[in-house]
Amino acid sequence: MTNLRIISICPSNTELLDALGLIDAVVGVDDYSDWPAEKVQHLPKLGPDLNINMERLVELKPDLVIASLSVPGMEKNVERLQELNIPHLVLNPKTIEEIYGDIVTLAEACGVPERAQRVVTELQAKVQRVQEKAAARKHSPKLYWEWWPRPIFTPGALNWLTPISELVGGVNLFADQPGDSYTATHEEVIERAPDYMFAVWCGVHADKVKTSMITDRVGYAAIPAVQNGRVYVLEEGLYCRPSQRLFQGLEELVELLYPELS
Fold first, then answer.
1. What is the DSSP letter of 194?
2. What does DSSP say about strands 6-8 and 26-29: parallel, antiparallel, or unpaired?
3. CA angle, 125 then 236 then 227, to 5°
4. Whether residue 167 sits in one domain with residue 61
5. CATH classification at residue 35
6. Rounded CA gap, 209 and 212, in Å?
7. What does the alpha-carbon distance between residue 124 and residue 145 come to, in Å, rounded to a whole number?
8. Residue 45 DSSP class
9. Residues 6 or more apart in contact with residue 220 via CB below 8 angstroms
10. Which site in 47, 143, 148, 233 is 20 to 30 Å from 161, CA atoms measured?
11. What is the reported pTM?
12. Same domain, 83 and 158
Protein backbone atom coordinates (compact mmCIF):
# COMPACT_ATOMS: atom_id res chain seq x y z
CA MET A 1 0.00 0.00 0.00
CA THR A 2 1.37 3.36 -0.99
CA ASN A 3 0.99 6.46 1.15
CA LEU A 4 0.92 8.72 -1.89
CA ARG A 5 -2.06 10.91 -2.77
CA ILE A 6 -2.46 10.32 -6.51
CA ILE A 7 -4.54 12.18 -9.09
CA SER A 8 -5.20 10.81 -12.57
CA ILE A 9 -6.27 13.19 -15.33
CA CYS A 10 -6.71 10.58 -18.07
CA PRO A 11 -9.00 7.52 -18.13
CA SER A 12 -6.31 5.07 -19.25
CA ASN A 13 -4.08 6.13 -16.35
CA THR A 14 -6.91 5.60 -13.87
CA GLU A 15 -7.36 2.10 -15.26
CA LEU A 16 -3.64 1.31 -15.03
CA LEU A 17 -3.62 2.49 -11.42
CA ASP A 18 -6.42 0.02 -10.71
CA ALA A 19 -4.47 -2.79 -12.40
CA LEU A 20 -1.58 -2.05 -10.04
CA GLY A 21 -3.87 -2.11 -6.98
CA LEU A 22 -3.46 1.64 -6.44
CA ILE A 23 -6.99 2.91 -6.94
CA ASP A 24 -7.46 3.42 -3.18
CA ALA A 25 -4.61 5.95 -3.30
CA VAL A 26 -6.38 8.02 -5.97
CA VAL A 27 -7.94 11.21 -4.55
CA GLY A 28 -9.24 12.76 -7.78
CA VAL A 29 -9.81 12.02 -11.46
CA ASP A 30 -10.86 13.68 -14.70
CA ASP A 31 -14.53 13.60 -15.72
CA TYR A 32 -14.02 10.84 -18.30
CA SER A 33 -12.45 8.34 -15.90
CA ASP A 34 -15.41 5.98 -15.62
CA TRP A 35 -13.82 2.58 -15.01
CA PRO A 36 -13.91 0.68 -12.76
CA ALA A 37 -17.20 2.45 -12.12
CA GLU A 38 -17.73 1.21 -8.58
CA LYS A 39 -14.31 2.53 -7.55
CA VAL A 40 -14.22 5.89 -9.32
CA GLN A 41 -17.80 7.13 -9.30
CA HIS A 42 -17.48 8.72 -5.85
CA LEU A 43 -14.07 10.32 -6.40
CA PRO A 44 -13.79 14.10 -6.86
CA LYS A 45 -14.08 15.00 -10.55
CA LEU A 46 -11.71 17.68 -11.83
CA GLY A 47 -13.28 18.47 -15.18
CA PRO A 48 -12.84 17.09 -18.70
CA ASP A 49 -9.37 15.81 -19.46
CA LEU A 50 -8.57 18.77 -21.73
CA ASN A 51 -9.77 21.38 -19.25
CA ILE A 52 -8.73 20.23 -15.78
CA ASN A 53 -9.66 22.52 -12.90
CA MET A 54 -6.18 23.19 -11.56
CA GLU A 55 -7.39 25.14 -8.52
CA ARG A 56 -9.43 22.13 -7.42
CA LEU A 57 -6.50 19.84 -8.19
CA VAL A 58 -4.19 21.89 -5.95
CA GLU A 59 -6.75 21.78 -3.14
CA LEU A 60 -6.56 17.98 -3.14
CA LYS A 61 -2.83 18.19 -2.28
CA PRO A 62 -1.57 15.47 -4.62
CA ASP A 63 1.86 13.91 -4.20
CA LEU A 64 1.77 12.80 -7.81
CA VAL A 65 -0.40 13.60 -10.84
CA ILE A 66 -0.52 11.13 -13.73
CA ALA A 67 -1.10 12.68 -17.17
CA SER A 68 -0.99 11.20 -20.67
CA LEU A 69 -0.22 12.63 -24.09
CA SER A 70 -2.30 9.83 -25.63
CA VAL A 71 -5.09 12.41 -25.27
CA PRO A 72 -4.48 15.15 -27.89
CA GLY A 73 -4.38 18.53 -26.19
CA MET A 74 -3.19 17.25 -22.82
CA GLU A 75 -0.04 19.36 -23.25
CA LYS A 76 -1.86 22.36 -21.78
CA ASN A 77 -2.46 20.52 -18.51
CA VAL A 78 1.15 19.35 -18.37
CA GLU A 79 2.37 22.93 -18.83
CA ARG A 80 0.18 24.06 -15.93
CA LEU A 81 1.48 21.27 -13.70
CA GLN A 82 5.00 22.40 -14.50
CA GLU A 83 4.15 26.03 -13.75
CA LEU A 84 2.58 25.04 -10.42
CA ASN A 85 5.58 22.84 -9.59
CA ILE A 86 3.34 19.83 -8.93
CA PRO A 87 5.08 16.44 -9.17
CA HIS A 88 3.73 14.65 -12.21
CA LEU A 89 4.33 11.76 -14.57
CA VAL A 90 3.46 11.97 -18.26
CA LEU A 91 2.78 8.77 -20.19
CA ASN A 92 2.55 8.59 -23.98
CA PRO A 93 2.35 5.00 -25.22
CA LYS A 94 2.02 4.27 -28.93
CA THR A 95 2.60 0.52 -28.98
CA ILE A 96 1.86 -2.58 -26.94
CA GLU A 97 5.46 -2.71 -25.73
CA GLU A 98 5.25 0.90 -24.58
CA ILE A 99 2.12 0.11 -22.58
CA TYR A 100 4.08 -2.62 -20.80
CA GLY A 101 6.84 -0.09 -20.17
CA ASP A 102 4.40 2.46 -18.80
CA ILE A 103 3.06 -0.08 -16.31
CA VAL A 104 6.60 -0.56 -15.00
CA THR A 105 7.24 3.20 -14.94
CA LEU A 106 3.96 3.90 -13.15
CA ALA A 107 4.55 1.20 -10.55
CA GLU A 108 8.03 2.53 -9.83
CA ALA A 109 6.80 6.13 -9.55
CA CYS A 110 4.14 5.03 -7.06
CA GLY A 111 6.53 2.98 -4.94
CA VAL A 112 5.20 -0.47 -5.82
CA PRO A 113 7.67 -1.71 -8.49
CA GLU A 114 7.09 -5.34 -7.56
CA ARG A 115 3.50 -5.22 -8.83
CA ALA A 116 4.34 -4.36 -12.42
CA GLN A 117 5.68 -7.70 -13.61
CA ARG A 118 2.56 -9.59 -12.54
CA VAL A 119 0.34 -7.24 -14.55
CA VAL A 120 2.62 -7.29 -17.60
CA THR A 121 2.87 -11.09 -17.52
CA GLU A 122 -0.92 -11.43 -17.47
CA LEU A 123 -1.27 -9.10 -20.46
CA GLN A 124 1.47 -10.88 -22.39
CA ALA A 125 -0.34 -14.17 -21.82
CA LYS A 126 -3.51 -12.70 -23.33
CA VAL A 127 -1.55 -11.56 -26.39
CA GLN A 128 -0.05 -15.00 -26.82
CA ARG A 129 -3.45 -16.70 -26.65
CA VAL A 130 -4.85 -14.29 -29.24
CA GLN A 131 -1.89 -14.84 -31.57
CA GLU A 132 -2.25 -18.61 -31.30
CA LYS A 133 -5.94 -18.40 -32.19
CA ALA A 134 -5.38 -15.96 -35.06
CA ALA A 135 -2.66 -18.19 -36.50
CA ALA A 136 -5.37 -20.64 -37.59
CA ARG A 137 -7.25 -18.03 -39.62
CA LYS A 138 -7.86 -18.47 -43.33
CA HIS A 139 -7.68 -14.79 -44.29
CA SER A 140 -6.07 -11.47 -43.27
CA PRO A 141 -8.86 -8.89 -43.09
CA LYS A 142 -8.48 -5.17 -43.67
CA LEU A 143 -9.79 -3.34 -40.60
CA TYR A 144 -11.09 0.22 -40.67
CA TRP A 145 -11.19 1.97 -37.29
CA GLU A 146 -13.15 5.22 -36.97
CA TRP A 147 -12.39 7.43 -33.99
CA TRP A 148 -14.56 10.30 -35.13
CA PRO A 149 -17.00 10.80 -38.03
CA ARG A 150 -16.77 14.50 -38.97
CA PRO A 151 -14.07 14.88 -40.03
CA ILE A 152 -13.01 11.26 -40.15
CA PHE A 153 -10.24 10.51 -37.68
CA THR A 154 -8.67 7.08 -37.93
CA PRO A 155 -5.49 5.60 -36.41
CA GLY A 156 -2.26 5.82 -38.37
CA ALA A 157 0.99 3.87 -38.11
CA LEU A 158 1.97 5.16 -34.68
CA ASN A 159 -1.04 4.04 -32.69
CA TRP A 160 -1.74 0.91 -30.68
CA LEU A 161 -4.62 -0.06 -32.99
CA THR A 162 -2.09 -0.82 -35.72
CA PRO A 163 -0.35 -3.57 -33.67
CA ILE A 164 -3.72 -4.64 -32.24
CA SER A 165 -4.89 -5.20 -35.82
CA GLU A 166 -1.72 -7.16 -36.59
CA LEU A 167 -2.01 -9.34 -33.49
CA VAL A 168 -5.39 -10.62 -34.69
CA GLY A 169 -3.94 -11.33 -38.12
CA GLY A 170 -5.39 -8.29 -39.82
CA VAL A 171 -4.14 -4.92 -40.98
CA ASN A 172 -5.18 -1.42 -39.95
CA LEU A 173 -6.61 0.15 -43.12
CA PHE A 174 -4.50 3.30 -42.69
CA ALA A 175 -1.37 1.75 -41.17
CA ASP A 176 0.63 3.23 -44.07
CA GLN A 177 -0.11 6.77 -42.88
CA PRO A 178 2.58 8.30 -40.63
CA GLY A 179 1.79 9.55 -37.18
CA ASP A 180 -0.76 8.65 -34.56
CA SER A 181 -3.92 9.63 -36.41
CA TYR A 182 -4.98 10.41 -39.94
CA THR A 183 -7.78 12.57 -41.29
CA ALA A 184 -9.26 10.43 -44.06
CA THR A 185 -11.78 11.25 -46.75
CA HIS A 186 -14.82 9.15 -47.54
CA GLU A 187 -13.34 8.50 -50.96
CA GLU A 188 -10.21 7.00 -49.42
CA VAL A 189 -12.23 4.71 -47.17
CA ILE A 190 -14.32 3.50 -50.12
CA GLU A 191 -11.25 3.03 -52.33
CA ARG A 192 -9.38 0.98 -49.70
CA ALA A 193 -12.34 -1.40 -49.41
CA PRO A 194 -12.13 -2.57 -45.77
CA ASP A 195 -13.43 -6.03 -44.85
CA TYR A 196 -14.55 -4.83 -41.42
CA MET A 197 -15.50 -1.38 -40.13
CA PHE A 198 -15.42 -0.47 -36.45
CA ALA A 199 -16.93 2.67 -34.95
CA VAL A 200 -15.07 3.51 -31.74
CA TRP A 201 -15.96 7.18 -31.38
CA CYS A 202 -13.87 8.63 -28.58
CA GLY A 203 -15.91 9.67 -25.57
CA VAL A 204 -19.18 8.40 -27.07
CA HIS A 205 -20.91 5.39 -25.53
CA ALA A 206 -21.63 2.59 -27.96
CA ASP A 207 -25.38 2.79 -27.35
CA LYS A 208 -25.36 6.31 -28.80
CA VAL A 209 -23.98 5.13 -32.15
CA LYS A 210 -25.83 3.20 -34.85
CA THR A 211 -24.16 1.27 -37.68
CA SER A 212 -26.47 3.11 -40.10
CA MET A 213 -24.52 6.29 -39.32
CA ILE A 214 -21.75 4.66 -41.34
CA THR A 215 -23.52 2.35 -43.77
CA ASP A 216 -25.88 5.07 -45.04
CA ARG A 217 -23.06 7.32 -46.22
CA VAL A 218 -22.92 8.11 -49.91
CA GLY A 219 -20.89 5.49 -51.77
CA TYR A 220 -20.36 3.20 -48.78
CA ALA A 221 -22.67 0.51 -50.25
CA ALA A 222 -19.71 -0.49 -52.44
CA ILE A 223 -17.50 -1.35 -49.43
CA PRO A 224 -17.11 -5.10 -48.72
CA ALA A 225 -17.68 -4.58 -44.98
CA VAL A 226 -21.03 -2.94 -45.69
CA GLN A 227 -22.04 -5.52 -48.29
CA ASN A 228 -21.25 -8.39 -45.90
CA GLY A 229 -22.82 -6.90 -42.77
CA ARG A 230 -19.47 -6.44 -41.04
CA VAL A 231 -19.90 -2.93 -39.66
CA TYR A 232 -19.76 -2.85 -35.86
CA VAL A 233 -20.07 -0.32 -33.07
CA LEU A 234 -17.56 -1.31 -30.39
CA GLU A 235 -17.05 -0.05 -26.85
CA GLU A 236 -14.55 2.75 -27.25
CA GLY A 237 -13.14 2.13 -23.78
CA LEU A 238 -11.74 -1.20 -25.02
CA TYR A 239 -9.94 0.28 -28.04
CA CYS A 240 -9.27 3.98 -27.45
CA ARG A 241 -7.49 3.74 -24.09
CA PRO A 242 -3.94 2.37 -23.72
CA SER A 243 -4.60 0.40 -20.54
CA GLN A 244 -5.19 -3.22 -19.59
CA ARG A 245 -8.70 -2.91 -21.05
CA LEU A 246 -7.15 -2.70 -24.52
CA PHE A 247 -6.13 -6.33 -24.08
CA GLN A 248 -9.71 -7.26 -23.23
CA GLY A 249 -10.66 -5.54 -26.47
CA LEU A 250 -8.02 -7.60 -28.27
CA GLU A 251 -9.55 -10.82 -26.94
CA GLU A 252 -13.04 -9.75 -27.98
CA LEU A 253 -11.79 -8.68 -31.42
CA VAL A 254 -10.32 -12.08 -32.30
CA GLU A 255 -13.62 -13.72 -31.31
CA LEU A 256 -15.54 -11.28 -33.50
CA LEU A 257 -13.33 -11.82 -36.54
CA TYR A 258 -13.04 -15.59 -36.35
CA PRO A 259 -16.06 -17.07 -34.56
CA GLU A 260 -15.36 -20.35 -36.31
CA LEU A 261 -12.14 -20.71 -34.30
CA SER A 262 -13.85 -20.52 -30.90
1. -
2. parallel
3. 100
4. no
5. 3.40.50.1980
6. 9
7. 23
8. B
9. 186, 189, 190, 214, 226
10. 47
11. 0.94
12. no
